[in-house]
Structures are given as C-alpha cells and as structure tokens.
C-alpha cells in the first residue's frame, strides 16, 4: 500500500509538468479591452515566449510546446544566431526575473507557407539547449487534429505587442485579453476569401492582438487545461478592435508539428 501511494504521488508530481496547466493560475476578467488588454499575473502563462534580438529588442511572441521546441509565426522571420528565445519573462523593464535565454539551432517553417496571403503561417524553432521547466516555464498543449471548439470556450491571447493601433506604444508587462472565437463564416464576412481552412479568427469584440504579438499564443481552456489553438498571424494594420484578428489554426498543423519534432 505504501509503495502504491508513493508511486501515485510521483505520478502526480510528474503531471504538474504536463502541458497546459500553469503552476501560477491566470486571473481573467472579461472587462478587457494586447490592444485594450490588461496586465497578466506574473508567471501565469508559462509557455509564453519573447523572441528577441541580441540587444533585447522584442519583435515577436511564441509558445513553448516541449523542452526543445517553440512554435511561432513564419512571418516573424526568425534567424538562428541573430535571434533568441526568452522564457519566463513578464516585465521586460526588469533585470531581476529568472528568465532563460536560449539560442536557436533550427528554424523549420511549414512547407506550404504563402507569404502573399499569410496562409500556413507556422514555424518551429528547435532550441540549442532544452528549456528547464519551473513554476514560470512549462509547455502548452497542442490542439489535436480533430480539436472541437464548442461555443462558450474561454480563449485568451497574450503578448507584448503594441497597445494601440496608433503610435508605437509597447507595454513592459505581459498583456492578456479574453477573446471570443469568431466562426469562419463571420470572419469571411469581414475578410472575404482571404480566410482559408488553415486560419482561425477571434476578437471583433473591443480588443485585438497587434504588431509585436505575432507568433504568440491563442489558447482556450478545456477543463483545467489550456490548449494552443491559434498562432497570432495577421489583422488590420491599425489593430481595429472591431475587426476579427486572424490566427494560424494549430489543429491543421498538429500532424506536421509532431513529425518534425520526432524527426529532428
């Protein structure tokens, strides 16, 4: 009996580093107006990545999906040697945070990426050394190939992108905003045939992701687990909060992502 309980506690301990369950719980309010976002709880989105140049300039987001891999947007144009993955960051104005700055050994973009219409805007970054999981650094779960998205899901996007469609104001602290998913038909009413099956739309409700959020996560909560369903891809140039923002649809890339990770 003692042995069984010991094994059980080990299993439970192990599962605390499972995907999609932050050790620090996010606090969400729906009165969020990211553009019109709010400060996140420090450490509550432990998969959030800041992609930075060597001088510390943040240019895109990303999501940690395993100790060795980060997923981001292809249009971020990440270059090994010039760009770095920063994990565990919250307040970019602070030098006291326990961040991990990791080099990138490989950049693998989805083969059918189309830079003209931003279709298939997904890139995998292989880390030169594995991330160490902590209470502030752990992976998100990937949407499955047949991920169902029932109405009423709580979905959130996070990032350090511009907080206004006018002017170049970026926040020091990680922003979050609760967004409703928008159906493909609703999204096509706004964007027309630019919306493909490899895209998912969210927002148009008084909040939006903006430049600098690109590559970052759109996650939805299923039970007590957060699932990565979208990668910030494109939207209006002025980050119009009444227009749906467009994300790469992770479920369409699940098989490819797992194949790349297995083969590299």
TrEMBL record:
Pfam families: Trypsin. Gene3D superfamilies: Trypsin-like serine proteases. Keywords: Disulfide bond, Hydrolase, Protease, Serine protease, Signal, Zymogen. One of its GO terms (molecular function) is serine-type endopeptidase activity. InterPro entries: Peptidase_S1_PA (IPR009003), Peptidase_S1_PA_chymotrypsin (IPR043504), Peptidase_S1A (IPR001314), Trypsin_dom (IPR001254), TRYPSIN_HIS (IPR018114), TRYPSIN_SER (IPR033116). GO terms for cellular component: extracellular space. GO terms for biological process: proteolysis. Residues 34-262 form the Peptidase S1 domain. It comes from Mesocricetus auratus (Golden hamster). This is Chymotrypsin-like protease CTRL-1. Residues 1-18 form the signal peptide. It comes from the Eukaryota.
């Amino acid at each position: 009996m003692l042995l069984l309980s010991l094994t059980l506690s080990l299993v439970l301990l192990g599962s605390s580093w499972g995907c999609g369950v932050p050790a620090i719980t996010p606090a969400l309010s729906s009165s969020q107006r990211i553009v019109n976002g709010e400060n996140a709880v420090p450490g509550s989105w432990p998969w959030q990545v800041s992609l930075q140049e060597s001088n510390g300039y943040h240019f895109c987001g990303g999501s940690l999906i395993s100790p060795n891999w980060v997923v981001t947007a292809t249009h971020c144009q990440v270059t090994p040697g010039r760009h770095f993955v920063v994990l565990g960051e919250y307040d970019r104005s602070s030098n006291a945070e326990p961040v991990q700055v990791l080099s990138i050994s490989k950049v693998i973009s989805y083969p059918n990426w189309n830079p003209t219409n931003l279709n298939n805007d997904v890139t995998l970054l292989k880390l030169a050394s594995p991330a160490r999981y902590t209470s502030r650094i752990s992976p998100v779960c990937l949407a499955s190939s047949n991920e169902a998205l029932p109405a009423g899901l709580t979905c959130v996007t996070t990032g350090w992108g511009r907080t206004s469609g006018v002017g170049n104001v970026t926040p020091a602290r990680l922003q979050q905003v609760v967004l409703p998913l928008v159906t493909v038909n609703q999204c096509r009413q706004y964007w027309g045939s630019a919306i493909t099956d490899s895209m998912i739309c969210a927002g148009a409700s008084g909040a939006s992701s903006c430049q600098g959020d690109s590559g970052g996560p759109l996650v939805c909560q299923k039970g007590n687990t957060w699932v990565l369903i979208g990668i910030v891809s494109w939207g209006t140039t002025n980050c119009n909060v009444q227009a749906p923002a467009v994300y790469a649809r992770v479920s369409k890339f699940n098989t490819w992502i797992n194949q790349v990770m297995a083969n590299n």
